[in-house]
Amino acid sequence: MRAVFLFISAVMLLAYAGVPLAAQGQQTELLPELLVQGQAVLNRAVNIPSKDRTGEIVDLMVDPATGHIGFALLSFSGFMGLVEKNVIAPIPWARVEFEPKQKTFVARGIGSGEGGDIVEYDEDKWQVFDETELASLYESYALRNQAQESREAYSEVAGTDKVARERLSMLQLTRLINAPVMSRKGALLGYVDKLYLDLTGGFIRLVDVRSPGDRLEQPAHLVPYPLLDYDWGEGRFTLDVSRKDQARLEDFPVHAGMYVQAQTMRQIYRNMGLAEYLRVGG
């Protein structure tokens, strides 16, 4: 079963062949052909040629207020695994590209010239990255604070309707899976089942919200990430729309699997009046 899962993941990731996922200082109008389920990115190898090291993605660090992907958390086990503890290294997503021939990710410009060097944490000590930690990480990798820039771009698009108010922090993508999703009035609507990533722009674009008791064969209702507000204290989302707008989401029941067509994403965003959000991050 695991072999089948990895094969499907490789096929999906091939859709990004030849397309930089996020290049430093580069803005693009291109959108991906597919959105990839976040879990398909986990356990993928990332090669760092400048350091002659290869790590494995154990998680992604995201800003839950905007859905921005900041870092891939890589696990290194040392030379042939001959260390007592693994270490975790947050690698800027802006430096990561997909290598189609090897079906792996490659991190460019790290530890060479002006590219900064790898920052490592003990496996049992890394945690949520707050604003200070994020600033330090971007400085270590000789990058602009792209987390802050993404937050500002998101707020500019949102205007006064939805401004990223909370202090800039990032947490693990996997912590968002199974998070409750509430209505404005506090009713339980369901749980986060899947998160679909735009690897080109570096954002969570859609969330598969499953109603309590949903069976796998039932249609998945895909929700644009900008409609969700994350509560750090409660660890849950609020679907910040009226009941009328919530009904409009039901017009797009989709049997979501390991990927979602970008055409579907654009239709849902346009239907909800969110087309401007697609430009955030590229």
UniProtKB/TrEMBL annotation:
Signal sequence segment: 1-17
Protein known as: PRC-barrel protein
Matches recorded under InterPro entries: PRC-brl_dom (IPR027275), PRC_barrel-like_sf (IPR011033)
Transmembrane helix is among the record's keywords: no
Lineage: Bacteria, Pseudomonadati, Thermodesulfobacteriota, Desulfovibrionia, Desulfovibrionales
Pfam family membership, one: PRC
Domain PRC-barrel: 52-95, 172-245
Keywords: Signal
